[in-house]
Write a structure and sequence with these properties.
Strand content: 5-15%
Largest sheet: 6 strands, antiparallel
Structural class: alpha+beta
Shape: globular
Number of strands: 11
Bound molecules: adenosine-5'-diphosphate, 2-acetamido-2-deoxy-1-O-phosphono-alpha-D-glucopyranose, magnesium ion
Radius of gyration: 20 Å
Helix content: 40-55%
Order of helices and strands: HEEEHEEEEHHHHEEEEHHHHHH
Distance between the termini: 50 Å
Length: about 350
């Protein structure tokens, strides 16, 4: 779509939310890989988050928004019971002028608006161990709040989202199809994945034999999906609730480790910089267990290191699949971006394999 057309669509969508005021600015915002996020300012001075939901990834707009409303209402009531800050504890959806939860433009794109959670920052890296422990507590608490939530009201926004064997099959299908002629250049990465085909099944097997329960989980527990207070750097809200659905606690733990306990950034090209920081791992594990407040079983606790390795491996395979298929899923900003991300994840997996015993001890 041309820039002018994209801008026209955005304005068409903004017109659906004018009950909050006239919008005076709208600028791209944040570092998400999936949705198009904008910060909009109304003539009242109030700020809002405005997002074009990626409908190629989330076709069931009604279902996704229904999940978000149900989950945020539940969290609001939990925080109210605890006497916490109900204004900033979770996302608040702003309805359209007609009271709907999202707006569909004439090209079928979905748009939604949230209250901007003020006086917060989002971070790509933590500055110290305490921040990472706090972040873990926040994700653990999030899971705790949802422990009595009726999961049957949720739709599954993306089927088999963290089903690693299915992700493996998807990769093999992409390799066989090779739609962009890129397979020859990524043989080493494909082999890396193939050597771990059995490992990929570990959590699904644990679930099948009753060792790993399904809980309502976040499923995208990256550091930048938490908003921190700009003064105290304490977590304020867990955001990006598109993928909340039944899942494994150890995957929520694992995805945070993948992103936040890597000594390098997610798309680092210099692989000598990539490793698992065991101090950060320890800090996070401590906070997560505290946040979950005794709700995890011994077996779940035992599987936490596997969760970390699994999420890193799975994410690496997803980046590789997207690279092979021509980069249609994750937003990229340079040539070979998904391949760089894949290599970085696989380097981290290799380091985690070396540190398996230390992770278990922690
Ligand atoms: P994506 O699914 O593309 O990752 P997110 O929902 O995570 O999109 O939003 C992208 C970024 O926008 C977040 O990392 C955060 O910095 C910012 N953001 C999102 N929602 C809010 C909000 N309600 N208040 C303040 N900042 C927000
Ligand atoms: C995407 O939306 P965002 O940027 O927070 C992706 C996650 C990946 C992550 C990798 C819906 O998260 O699953 O782990 O990129 N979200 C979706 O950085 O696929
Ligand atoms: Mg996000």
């Amino acid at each position: 779509m041309s820039r002018a057309k994209a801008c026209a669509k955005r304005n068409e969508a903004l017109d659906a939310f004018t009950h909050v005021g006239r919008f005076v600015s709208c600028t791209p915002y944040g570092n998400g890989h999936i949705n198009d996020t904008f910060l909009v300012i109304a003539d009242t001075g109030k700020r809002y988050i405005f997002q074009r939901i990626n409908t190629a990834i989330f076709p069931d707009l009604k279902g996704v928004m229904g999940n978000i409303i149900a989950v945020t209402e539940h969290i609001h009531s939990k925080v109210a019971e605890e006497g916490g800050d109900t204004d900033r504890c979770t996302l608040t959806v702003i309805p359209t002028n007609w009271g709907k939860r999202y707006f569909k433009d004439s090209m079928n794109s979905g748009w939604r608006m949230y209250e901007f959670i003020e006086r917060t920052i989002s971070m790509e890296r933590v500055e110290n161990l305490r921040e990472f422990t706090d972040c873990a507590e926040a994700f653990g608490r999030f899971q705790g709040w949802l422990s009595d939530f009726d999961a049957s009201v949720l739709i599954e926004p993306i089927k088999d989202f963290h089903n690693t064997p299915v992700r493996y099959e998807n990769l093999m299908r992409a390799v066989a199809a090779d739609p962009c002629g890129r397979v020859a250049s990524v043989r080493r990465e494909i082999e890396f994945a193939m050597e771990r085909e059995e490992f990929a099944k570990t959590l699904e097997k644990a679930h099948e034999c009753g060792d790993l329960p399904l809980r309502v989980t976040h499923n995208d527990t990256k550091l930048n999906n938490i908003l921190f207070d700009e003064d105290t750097h304490k977590p304020v809200a867990v955001i990006d609730l598109d993928t909340v659905m039944p899942g494994y606690s150890v995957n929520d733990f694992g995805d945070s480790i993948r992103f936040g306990a890597n000594t390098a950034v997610e798309d680092e090209r210099d692989l000598s910089k990539v490793s698992l920081d065991l101090e950060l791992y320890h800090a996070y594990a401590k906070g997560f267990l505290k946040g979950c407040d005794g709700k995890l079983t011994d077996k779940e606790i035992e599987l936490m290191p596997i969760g970390a390795r699994m999420m890193t491996f799975e994410c690496g395979m997803r980046f590789l699949t997207d690279y092979i298929e021509g980069d249609h899923y994750f937003r990229t900003s340079r040539e070979g971006h998904n391949l760089d991300r894949c290599r970085c994840q696989f380097a981290l997996v290799a380091d985690m394999e070396k540190k398996e015993e230390q992770m278990k001890l922690i």
